[in-house]
Amino acid sequence: MTSLYDFNFSIPGSLIFGPGKRFELNNILGTSPLKILILTGSSWFYRLELDKEFSQILKGNQCRFCRIEKNEPTVESIAGALNEARDFSPDLMIAVGGGSVLDSAKALSGLLTNGGNVLDYLEGIGQNRPIVKPGLTWIAIPTTAGTGSEVSKNAVIKSPVHGVKKSMRSPLIMASHVIVDPELHISASSEVTAYAGLDAIVQLFESYVSKKAQPMTSALVEGCFVHSLSALLSLSLGKNTLENRTIIAYGSLISGIALANAGLGAVHGFASSIGGKFDIPHGQICALFFNPVLEHNRESIGSKLDKLLASAAGGEDPFEWLKKIFTCILSNFRLPLNLSHFSISESDIEEVANKTSGSSMSGNPCSMTLESRCKILKEVFRV
């Protein structure tokens, strides 16, 4: 038997997908009253009065809402949320929000049962302690279509002191149940839709061409990549329909499953090192580094790209077609096409290039020298 059919595949305990599915939450919980910590984003959740809606859905349980900071989770923000969670001592958690909320839930899940603080478990900069006990049961309800964090096994945490973003990683902290309800995505802003959606597309693509790709992840990506790209293009043109939201939500879900089992590539390697040093949205970094990394990997992924895009490209060169679509989506959303507005020095370039390593880079389909990394950084930052 070849190595092609030798792999592990991790997914949450159950996946519930479709408009209105959030109202099935009680079917998971059962009838016994529970202490439930509900992790949410910032004002958006409360502005739409979702706190009242979820309080009604969860009537009969003892619930406490815990607001997670708007930006990406940090060592400090996790410490604050952990104190609140330990004070409440919940039976389970429900995370309703974007990638930051969901990643925070994963980190808290592991810390509440394994003890210690988040630095004890972060790869590369902490003690890298393994998660040995199953995390606290939690339910993921994403409100954006992008990170796929609801089905992945790592929590990405920023350490401002170290100037990097690193993962706390274990299948033991994955969500027990996932409810994806595209109705919760309809009100997302244009910017959030763009950066989250582009992140999902990049994750689908990188996991597909990854050196760690496997038959199941490849089949899942092939079934949704073109549809997801088309839906995001439609959204960039102002077609904010439930159908388009549902398609990109499904693509995001699959991107999370794929990255959890096949890894990513150089785009996310750059995103990790840049996001740790500069306050730039993760999705924006992924979107702007996609085309340069695609060009760097061209000779290594030609046959895979042909298979993925042959029907969609309509006779055009698949590489050029995909690069053109990416640029078109960015332009339609009126987003910057480079990072020239960020001040970065030659020394910063070298520092970021040296830090662009780790698990994401190990999955890139071809190696990338320090010189190549510096070249791509200069291209995107216009140095």
Give the termini distance in whole angstroms.
50 Å
Kindly identify the CATH topology of the largest domain.
Answer: Dehydroquinate synthase-like, alpha domain
Portion of residues within helices: 40-55%
CATH class of the largest domain: Mainly Alpha
Shape: globular
Q: Give the amount of beta strand, in percent.
A: 5-15%
What is the ordering of alpha helices and beta strands?
EHEHHEHEHEEEEHHHHHHHHHHH
CATH superfamily of the largest domain: Dehydroquinate synthase-like - alpha domain
C-alpha Rg, in Å?
20 Å
Descriptive labels:
single chain, 383 residues, alpha/beta, Rossmann fold, Dehydroquinate synthase-like, alpha domain, 50% helix, 11% strand, globular
Task: Describe the structure in your own words.
With 383 residues, the chain is α/β, with parallel strands linked by helices. The chain has two domains: 3-184, 3-Layer(aba) Sandwich (Rossmann fold), CATH 3.40.50.1970; 188-381, Dehydroquinate synthase-like, alpha domain (Up-down Bundle). Helix content is 50%, strand content 11%. It has 16 helices and eight strands. It has helices spanning 25-29, 43-47, 50-57, 75-88, 99-114, 190-209, 215-222, 225-236, 242-262, 266-277, 282-296, 298-313, 318-332, 346-355, 359-362, 370-381, and strands at residues 14-17, 35-40, 62-67, 92-97, 138-142, 154-159, 164-169, 177-180. It starts with 13 loop residues before the first strand and ends with a helix. 50% of the residues are buried. The model has no long low-confidence stretch (mean pLDDT 92).
